[in-house]
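Open question from group meeting: does this chain pack into something compact, or does most of it stay loose? Before anyone orders reagents, we agreed to write out a predicted structure and look at it together. Recording both the input and the output here so the notebook holds the full record.
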Amino acid sequence: MSVYVFDGQGGGIGRALIERLRNTFPNSQIIAVGSNSMATAAMLKGGANTGATGENAVVYCCQQAQPTDVIAGPLGIVLANAMLGEFSPVMARAVAESRAYKILIPVSRCRASVAGVTEKPLSQYLEDAVELIRAYLK
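Structure tokens returned:
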């Protein structure tokens, strides 16, 4: 089982998620996939085993992910042109079509909200994501 963490811009959300995942699952395979090198570097500093950058890396990792794997990241990873255009339509489609289980963090900076989700601090959403991953892995 692998956990692919996707992020863009500065990679702060991805890094924070990876740090939490590394503490919870110390022996897990965590792959950082950034839309830019700064995001990937931040996630690697957070404890990812390996990382890849750019549109082709996103598409490739999504194709390689197995149904038992998890893709996690901000909501924008499934929205075309999210993250100020960093997440292209090709990237968003690759994530959406991947066979991996997806756990999306409801960040409203992508000009989208999820009905029924209560507003709370990002740190709580990250903890929720870790718990969803834990539940999926059982």
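Observations to bring back to the group:
The mean pLDDT is 95.
Residues 64 and 98 are 8 Å apart (CA to CA).
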